[in-house]
């Protein structure tokens, strides 16, 4: 089982308010796969250990789409920001500011970058 870092959305993973994530890469993922949600898994200092956040997540769907799809279709964008766990945030609850934040935290990413949209589920595993 692969680890997936949720360093920017630890609280949303812990409280279950996030069920979608966007990534650069992760092309091999498919529905039914399990991932282990962790705080971070790269850039650990000597002696640091991986911190597992909760039970494994089951992948529901995986698709590729342009990041700016969230700003060209604002209804879709607001729903996706909610599913990403940012509906409460005073700045990033808007699709345009969320996309800008994503680009700022992912080197080389622009709004037109094709990203991997990953939907996952919590709870009992089949």
Features:
126 residues; alpha+beta; Archaeosine Trna-guanine Transglycosylase, Chain: A, domain 4; five-stranded mixed beta sheet; 4 helices; 25% helix; 25% strand
Summarize the structure.
By secondary structure, this protein is of the alpha+beta class. The protein has helices at residues 10-15, 69-72, 74-83, 95-105, and strands at 2-5, 20-23, 34-38, 57-66, 114-121.
Question: How is this structure best described in words?
Answer:
- It is a single chain.
- This protein has 126 residues and is of the alpha+beta class.
- Helices cover 25% and strands 25% of the residues.
- The protein has four helices and five strands; from the N terminus they run E-H-E-E-E-H-H-H-E.
- Strands 1-3-4-5-2 form a five-stranded mixed sheet, with no helix packed on it.
- The protein starts with a strand and ends in a 5-residue tail after the last strand.
- 21% of the residues are buried.
- The mean pLDDT is 92.
């Amino acid at each position: 089982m692969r680890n997936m870092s949720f360093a920017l959305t630890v609280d949303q993973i812990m409280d279950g308010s996030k069920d979608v994530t966007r990534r650069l890469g992760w092309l091999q993922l498919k529905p039914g796969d399990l991932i282990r949600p962790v705080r971070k898994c790269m850039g650990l200092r000597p002696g640091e250990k991986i911190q597992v956040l909760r039970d494994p997540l089951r992948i529901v769907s995986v698709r590729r789409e342009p990041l700016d799809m969230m700003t060209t279709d604002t209804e879709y964008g607001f729903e996706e920001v909610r599913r990403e766990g940012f509906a409460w945030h005073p700045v990033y609850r808007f699709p345009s500011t969320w996309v800008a934040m994503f680009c700022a935290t992912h080197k080389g990413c622009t709004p037109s970058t094709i990203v991997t949209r990953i939907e996952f589920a919590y709870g009992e595993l089949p």
